[in-house]
Amino acid sequence: MDWMAWTWPTAIFFAVIASLLITFTVLAIKFPETPRTGILRIETTRGDRLFITLLGSAFINLAWLGIVGAQQPYALIVCLIYAAAVFRWV
Amino acid sequence: MEKTVNQKAWFLVLPVLLLVAFSAVIPLMTVVNYSVQDTFGNNQFFWAGLEWFEEMLRSERMWDALGRQLMFSGIILAIEIPLGIFVALNMPKSGFWSSFCLVLMSLPLLIPWNVVGTIWQIFGRVDIGLLGYTLDALGINYNYTQDILAAWVTIIVMDVWHWTSLVALLAFAGLKSIPDAYYQAAKIDQASRWKVFRFIELPKMMGVLMIAILLRFMDSFMIYTEPFVVTGGGPGNATTLLSIDLVKMALGQFDLGPAAAFSIMYFLVILLISWVFYTVMTNLEKREG
Question: A19 and A63 share a domain?
Fold first, then answer.
């Protein structure tokens, strides 16, 4: 895989996203659901909430890097709190 | 009852999946890989961590380009959307002239982007271009290669010339789908022209207008060819929009790491805005029933 210049951290990053996608696909097949409307006043399914979580997490990480600039792993804690909030209320 | 659902049809999607994987997903993954490494060519990479992201977030050059980009997209949307609606409202609704207008309006959309750039590049030249020569003869100091305002006016007018048709065509399609009964009801109520527009035409056009805004925003946010051909990002960096800056960085300076970090942030902003537009659009449709 030299031509794509893989590194372990990026491989793990994509593996986590891929496994999340697979998990949510399996969940959607095994336990079908009806969309619900949360505080954003938009209909969301589990998949939508995952998307909002991932996209938001990207911005949280960037903001952390830009504003705090150190101890990046702590940004992941903020992301987890954000994820929990999205899955609970959105 | 016997189960009739057959999920095997999903396999028919496989070729598309492969195509998207090779044309979008794998290149994107490569960009992510580049963004955390440094290279001096020769396919050798060195781990750099989040350095490039940090550098880009602190880089004035990127924020300036983003500012110019937002200003460009904002200005062209503020002109093209109302102008497109205005044109659509004044187009003949049926008959020969309607088709004639439609064909005429589609023409700018068919011209390749670099040709549009070349047309305006020549059109604006003071020595041989009709526009530049005329303005110069009128005593207006117009030189898009040296004057920032002239350069901005040129690329904005060019974009308006190129893309207002798209908005007009979409708005026209929206207008055509309004049943006559609405207008008759408005007539009975003696509604003014403004009220017809405000309470009938505009709400009914909302769906297509959202598509028009989304398309125009995305296209203008990613615009490269036309301003590059006309101004080359100049004078100075005055019209260096995001993608022009990105290409300069990635191909001109061969700074693959910073350029990759830049691309990812660029991509995230586009993804966010598209998602917002898409969500608003689908929710509007649902509310309308």
Answer: no
Is A66 within 8 Å of B58 when comparing Cβ atoms? yes
**Nearest Cβ partner for A10 among B26, B36, B268:** B36
Indicate whether A6 and A49 sit together in one domain.
Answer: no
Number of domains in chain A: 2
pLDDT for B106-163, tens place per residue?
Answer: 999 999 999 999 999 999 998 898 999 999 899 888 888 888 999 999 999 999 999 9
B191: left (phi over 0), alpha (psi -120 to 50) or beta: beta
What is the domain range of residue A40?
36-90
CB proximity under 8 Å: A 20-59 to B: 41-43, 51, 55, 58-59
Q: Which of B32, B47, B54 shows the shortest C-beta gap to A65?
A: B54
Domain B59-288: state its class: mainly alpha
CA dist., res. B21 & res. A2, Å (int) = 18
Our CA-based measurement puts residue B278 at a distance from the nearest CA of chain A, in whole angstroms, of 11
Tens of pLDDT, residue by residue over B164-175, are: 999 999 999 999
Region B272-281: mean pLDDT is 86
Q: State the best of B58, B279, B287 to mutate against chain A, taking most chain A CBs within 10 Å.
A: B279
Q: Which residues of A13-73 form beta strands (DSSP E)? A: 36-37, 43-44
- Partner residue facing B275 (CB), from A4, A55, A65: A55
Give the global pTM: 0.84
Same structural domain, A54 and A82: yes
ipTM of the complex as predicted = 0.91
Give yes or no for a cis peptide into B235 (omega within 30° of 0). Answer: yes
Region B14-39: mean pLDDT is 90
Q: In Å, what is the CA distance from A15 to each residue of A22, B137, B140, B161, B184?
A: 10, 64, 60, 46, 60
Q: Is the pLDDT assigned to residue A1 strictly greater than 70?
A: no
Listed residue (B134, B131, B127, B128) closest to B154, CA to CA: B131
Q: Does residue A43 share a domain with residue A26?
A: no
A50/A80 same-domain check: yes
Q: Which two tokens stand for residue B225?
A: 């060819």
Half-sphere exposure of A55 (CA within 13 A, CB side): 18
